[in-house]
Amino acid sequence: MSQPSILDHFATLFSFDIRPFAKQVQVKRHVKIITAGEKVDHLYYLVSGQAKIVMFHENGKRSVIDFLQSDSFVGEIELLQGTRPNKDVITMQDCQLIALPLAMIREQLLNDALFLRTLCCQLSHKALKRAEENAENGSSSFRNRLARFILAMAENDLYQVAHIDAADYLHVSYRHFLYVFHDFLEQGLLQKEGKRYFLTDLDKLHDWTHPE
After folding, report:
1. Which of 95, 132, 206, 208 could form a disulfide with 147 if both were Cys (CB 3.0 to 4.6 A apart)?
2. Where are the alpha helices (DSSP H) in the chain?
3. Tell me: the pLDDT tens digits for 195-208?
């Protein structure tokens, strides 16, 4: 018996047959999936890889406000609100996505109860995660928060977030981030291979997620 394809799994998120409209695309790292101010022509679904959501301020500074991992929709806010994005979505590594042409199926998507329920679940999960992170910022040490972040962002025990992006998202100075991250390496929680880090002591890393 053959295994279900990626599109077969994706199709279960909709009440109508989405497969004729779905196109699988490969996107290299450091590529914008969505650009602030530009019309969003496709709704994307992140099959594998990671992306970051970046906001640019009037003073020229940037802020990484969230990260997207596999099984996430990209561009759903613009679909629901009918607006242009005010943030960039940029791949952090090579990504596999499914693209849906909004010009062809926008109304079907907006009237599909099963699809909308999926979006509601994802959006509520994101809101709850961010609320929990904000609450933890004032009650946990940075070591605790970094351990939780690494565990959350690792895929198959591999962590690949750029230090500058992680420091920005976690609201700490780059210098302090490097100091604590280096301690993780010294303690044997991670092992560096090129620009990638493998989680080598999951038990200790989980222990470090708890306040001292």
Report:
1. 208
2. 6-11, 76-81, 102-110, 113-137, 142-153, 163-170, 174-186, 202-207
3. 889 999 999 999 98
Do the Cβ atoms of 47 and 31 come closer than 8 Å? no
Last-in-domain residue among 91, 125, 159:
125
pLDDT tens per residue, range 58-69: 887 889 999 999
Q: What share of the chain is helix, strand, coil (3-state, %, to 5)?
A: 40, 25, 35
**CA-based end-to-end distance of the chain:** 51
Let me know whether 63 and 116 are in one domain: yes
Q: Phi/psi at 178 (nearest 5 deg)?
A: -60, -40
Residues 144 and 167: their CA atoms lie apart, in Å, by 14
User: 125, 151, 167 — which closes off a domain?
Assistant: 125
